[in-house]
Amino acid sequence: MRGRSPALEIKSPSDLGGMRAAGLVVAEIHAVMREAVRPGATGRELDAIARRELAARGATSNFLGYHGFPATVCVSVNDVVVHGIPDDTPFQEGDIVSLDFGAVVDGWHGDAAVTIPVGEVSESVARLLVDCEDALWAGIAAMRAGARLREIGTAVEQLVRSRGEYGIVEEYGGHGIGTAMHQDPHVMNYRTRQRGPKLEPGLCLAVEPMITLGQPQTYTLSDRWTVKSTDGAWAAHFEHSIAVTDGGPFVLTAPDGGAARLSELGVPNPVTLPR
Predict the structure, then answer these.
(1) Fewer beta carbons below 10 Å: N end or C end of the chain?
(2) Dihedral, CA atoms, 192, 195, 199, 204, nearest 10 degrees?
(3) pTM of the predicted model, to two decimals?
């Protein structure tokens, strides 16, 4: 315990089992929502799907009512970076739709986001999605026990900078997660001077890079939630909740625990969570 920040919530092996249960509910409902993203569908329809699927699993939403947020899923289209409120505007062919969604199971929180193309998208937009998701996995790969928090943001930034002239959104980032959706520490998506706390087994983090095809600056609409890129550039957002373990990072919100992607990156990954 000595040397640990008192703000960090370290989970026991049994706690991680609860985190995995919440993460799997998030993964399952994300899969259902993804299938519903098509031209003519609406954000409000996706929100109804999320509510139905949560109820079917005996889970609750950690988004609905959070500081007054009026929905169970954030639906952010094109130049909306994050925190979009679902409405009745139909998706158009060529749009991109970010779905940020979380669930609570027996007091444990899961949180994940994905950006989905609506039909065929332009080559530059398709690359944006690939590069943002790859940046997420680069950050996850840096989550080894004993590493410093700064290494996550450094890995994200290095991957993004190696792929193109993207804007890395700095106002928003990842966070600790566990008995609350948002906990310390804040997880930057770029390298910082501060090393940050040491990552230790039982620490759970949500890593979520957001990048744009233009400049990184954003502004918030009068609804106090919807965040858009200042220059109108389209944006991508990907997120997973991850547990640090002695055997490597375990992706709580991925059906396979992240094994396939981390194997491609040459990163050790536990087959199952410790018990």
Answers:
(1) N
(2) -30
(3) 0.96
